[in-house]
Amino acid sequence: MTDIPVEKISPTEGDDDVQMPALLGPWALMWRKFRRHRVAYASLWVVVLIYLLALFGEFFTTTEIGETNVRAPFAPPMGISLFVENEDGSTDFQLHAKGLKLELDREAMRRTFVEDPDKIIPLGFFVEGYAYELLGFIPMETHFFGPKNKRDRVYFWGADRLGRDIYSRIIMGTRISMSIGLVGVVVSLFIGISLGGISGYYGGWIDNVIQRIIEFIRSIPTIPLWMGLAAAIPLGWPPIRTYFVVTLIVSMIGWTGLAREVRGKFLSLRNEDFITAARLDGLTDWEIIWKHMVPSFSSHIIASLTLAVPLMILAETSLSFLGIGLQPPTVSWGTLLKEAQNIRTIIQAPWLLIAPGTMIVVAVLALNFLGDGLRDAADPNAH
Amino acid sequence: MPLIQMPTDPLVEIRDLQTHFFTDDGVVKAVDGVDLDVHANRTLCILGESGCGKSIMARSILRIVDAPGRIVNGSITYRNAGGETIDLAKARHGSRALRAIRGQDIAMIFQEPMSSLGPIQKIGKQITETILSHRPMSKAEAKETAIEMLDRVGIPKPAERFEAYAFELSGGMRQRAMIAMALSCQPRLLIADEPTTALDVTTQAQILDLIAELKDEFQMGVMLITHDLGVVAEVAEDVAVMYMGKVVETGDVYSIFENPQHPYTKALLASVPRMGAKRQRRLPAIRGMVPHPLARPSGCTFRTRCDHFMPGICDVAEPPMIATGDSRAACFLHTEVAQDG
Amino acid sequence: MLGYVYRRILYMIPTVFLVSIVTFIIIQLPPGDYLDTLAAELSDSGGLDSGTLEALRDQYGLGQPMYVQYWKWITGILFHGDFGLSFEKNLPVNDLIWDRLGWTFAISLLTLLFIWAVALPIGIYSAVRKYSVGDYAATFFGFIGLAVPNFLLALVMMYVAFKYFGQSVGGLVSPEYIDAPWTWDKIVDLLKHIWMPIVVVGTSGAAALIRIMRANLLDELYRPYVVTARAKGMSEFQLLMRYPVRVALNPFISTIGWILPTLVSGEIIVAVVMNLPTTGPMLLRALLVQDMYLAGSLILIVSLLTVLGTLISDLLLAWIDPRIRYQ
Ligand SMILES: Nc1ncnc2c1ncn2[C@@H]1O[C@H](COP(=O)(O)OP(=O)(O)OP(=O)(O)O)[C@@H](O)[C@H]1O
Ligand code: SF4
Ligand SMILES: [Mg+2]
Questions:
Q1: Which of A238, B297, C263, C277 has the highest Cβ tally under 10 A?
Q2: Ligand 3 ion local residues (Cβ < 5 A)
Q3: How far apart are CA A299 and CA A297, in angstroms?
């Protein structure tokens, strides 16, 4: 029995008027598919924006994050108004916030803040404020947006119990929280690829042992475990050391998923011709793993990494919230939320919960969308 | 003027069928104007290169084309045992009328016996299910019928196999089980989409014999889709040759094999090595390759590969189906236009 | 099947062993040994005499090599059910934990049921009506559910409940029922309270499972065997339920394996926020004051029970999926 030949062998002349769709490289193809995923594409920009915020934090703040203000405990968020009324009744365009004054509410016997219409705080872009070092080495005093008068204080997102500016603190918390995600991911990338790679590359008993370890980590509730580990961090440690230990603890979740994925890829790649060829060329296993196998599925890895970052951010936030992760005065989204731990505080000052909460949700959402879009784009068999 | 006199009206009459896929990259015209008659008690073989739309055409009959595919035009007239007709192309999706025909009047078996059976359902259950959806039977009766069917298609120890899962059977056994399932309601038309491609040669022959045997036994029409000219020579009575979503030539098997009219059919037949002749491996059977489905040539779709391509004619209009020789073919070589030019 | 059960139980042993090691390490992590802390703690309130102290030191093998300490600790648990003492409360750990563990697991299991009840129909709908408004809504909910940390959701819900419904929140029953015997009213009151932690803990899991079910089902929905079933003349609903859903259900069930640990984790955090009488607050407090035998025991038991739950779910899976059973 004979089959009709399915494939061509020689190209035809005379079919030059029938054009084929252009062929793109794998990365360009992935990018094109990714672009089509609108939410993911928008999320990319949100993520970029958040990391810029983290990088140039001080520039965007209005107040130093440690600065307390006895006149503004639990001050509510201030709106930004556009026009001021002059004495003669005409209006001028002038970005400003209205000041606050304390008033005694006789019924509730409580002091509450009310807007002070006479106290106008002019706002502007690129204003002078407290001194800082941009990126840690460029001395600057200019801030992106804030009160024109250096001595005025504004609280766009309200103030906490010590009168510290939530807006500025959240911006600075972005640096810690987002970087923990990144550093954690780098750590888990290394562990995940190494262990997953070894597992899939060698197979056999090594594979078995590593698989058991992964299964172990995935089969136990991790929160109590981290709690146990994190609680052992001495309170007296310098913040930077705490930061790194917390990052390490947090990265212990991310690597298992990655390792599994990598292992699967390795198992299927192990017998491919180009790997055999590399082995015959005398490359060491380590070189083969990192130079040949990893690049061949790096798009998947990037997607998985993107999806791991939010996990770590959430983990840090949870631990710090419980008081066993980062410790004040370190400012992260988690330590900020710690301020909103009991219901009475939340009712008095909902912005303590809402502002950092929104940041977390936005960041995690954006990263998830981004990761999802990347995964779809990287996966040739995606629906 | 039909060339081959048929004793009865056709079971299924397909007219100008167009099934298109609306993909992100454009409209793929998988089936683009097919005319075809399928008769009771005859075997019609559909022949053509991979991707020419054979499966989609067959699936259109049962209306089981998955999205983004859609029948955009044409009719598929089915004539039931009572002589009433229904246009399947216009039947509402999932309608009772359509469901009553599926599995009972027209049944289908598929190319991959591995994946065409439910992976975690027992074979027997999958067969009785078919019977119970069409016949007023008790479960016990359905089971009996199913076991009989399994026995009939040559599955040893049918009562035991009734309880088996698909992964416990060999490929050939699975395909037999598929056939048992398809025939469990004694359909009037069996559509077999490359039923033997995934099987080894011996099993292929057994399955084909089985289908031929059952066709005679049940007096059903068979539409057999295949790449394989050997299969066609062995079992076909009628042949339709498809190229890029169109039927380019139809006729009875003798006319097609002895006296092919369309250049594409000729090329296909020429690719079969003569008995005894040594197969020349590097010689392309048909030069060129099938154009990309999104870049259909204008005029005759075969013109990019045709040795008789006539500029100014073949690339201007689509050749109509014309009776020529003992068959019907769509090629300008056989029309007045070409002869005049 | 039996072979599979044995194998699966055998696989559990190294996991259990690792859990115990990790727990032991956690117990050992804080500086100083347990009895020093205990002695310091108790010396204020009269203290222990040195004889008792020595006896305890011997019982726990303190001052001896690690493996001896581990051995004494683990055999104490295995053969005598002795989890040690909580120095903060000066009571055997055994007397403190079981109620709370019971609640933690009750809530986790109820949450699992809740997640299933939500994720299964929505996931199926989402896959079958891909790109419909409902699907987008479910997808959106899924992403939100995954993005909001448990404790944040708990805070928000408590705030909303308090502010807009004036409902007292926190705890599993209203204060007046806390020590009351179980009556019908108390059960009703319990139900009024318990739904909130269940929803809070379950949201992210439900979100994840919806996406998993959707993806699983989408994988199956266009398989050849579905076409076969359709070609047989079954109705769309029938064939959907009997074939693709049935097949997609298996990986869905196997997700219990990883969802259970996250539920227990989530419950622990949420319990802290909502002040539930479960493991969470006790564990947190024990960790903060470094009451390590109490903390260690909680971690150990929670982990073991989770591993056990996973085992049960795996066996269930093997029971319903012939492909695993026959391996
Ligand atoms: N889901 C789909 N989306 C887009 N195009 C499709 C889809 N399914 C089929 N097609 C297109 O329809 C055309 C016909 O496909 P069909 O499966 O009918 O070919 P075939 O003749 O049966 O080939 P084979 O011999 O390989 O089975 C192909 O060119 C293919 O590109
Ligand atoms: S119509 Fe022209 S191009 Fe097409 S097959 Fe006939 S001769 Fe060839
Ligand atoms: Mg086909």
A1: C263
A2: B 55
A3: 5
| C132 in reach of chain B (CB within 8 A) | no
Taking residue A296's Cβ as centre, other Cβ atoms within 10 Å add up to 14
Distance separating alpha carbons of residues B225 and B56, to the nearest angstrom: 11
A195: nearest Cα among A263, A144, A109: A263
Total number of residues shown for chain A: 383
Query: Does B50 touch chain A if contact means CB atoms closer than 8 Å?
Result: yes
- 8 Å CB contact of B284 and A9: yes
Residue B265: is it exposed, middle or buried by C-beta count within 10 angstroms (0-12/13-18/19+)? buried
**Is A212 in contact with C11 (Cβ distance < 8 A)?**
yes
Question: What is B5-37 written as a DSSP string?
Answer: PPSS--SEEEEEEEEEEEETTEEEEEEEEEEEE
Quickly tell me which residue has 């076409």 as its tokens. C227
Which residue's structure tokens are 């929140």? C169
* Closest alpha carbon to A311 in A184, A216, A190, A213: A184
Kindly report the average pLDDT of chain C as a whole number.
79
Per-residue tokens: B58: 């067959």
0.90 surpassed by pTM: no
Domain(s) labelled CATH 1.10.3720.10 in chain C stretch across: 98-325
- Identify the CA nearest to B34 among candidates B60, B3, B8: B60
| Helix, strand, coil percentages, rounded to 5, for chain B | 35, 25, 40
Give the position of tokens 């727990």: C23
Tokens standing for residue C78 = 């295995």
The whole-number pLDDT of residue C63 equals 67
Which positions in chain B touch C225 (Cβ < 8 Å)? 115-119
- Tokens 């947190």: give the residue: C284
Angle at which helix C93-128 crosses helix C292-320, to 10 degrees, equals: 40
Contact indicator for B108, B220 with CB cutoff of 8 Å: no
Q: Which of A222-226, B118-122, B259-263, C74-78 has the lowest mean pLDDT?
A: A222-226
What would the pLDDT profile of C286-321 be if each residue is shown by its tens digit? 877 777 788 888 888 888 887 887 788 778 777 777
CATH of C98-325, one of 3.90.1580.10, 2.160.10.10, 3.90.1150.30, 1.10.3720.10: 1.10.3720.10
Tell me the CA end-to-end span of chain C in Å, nearest whole number. Answer: 9
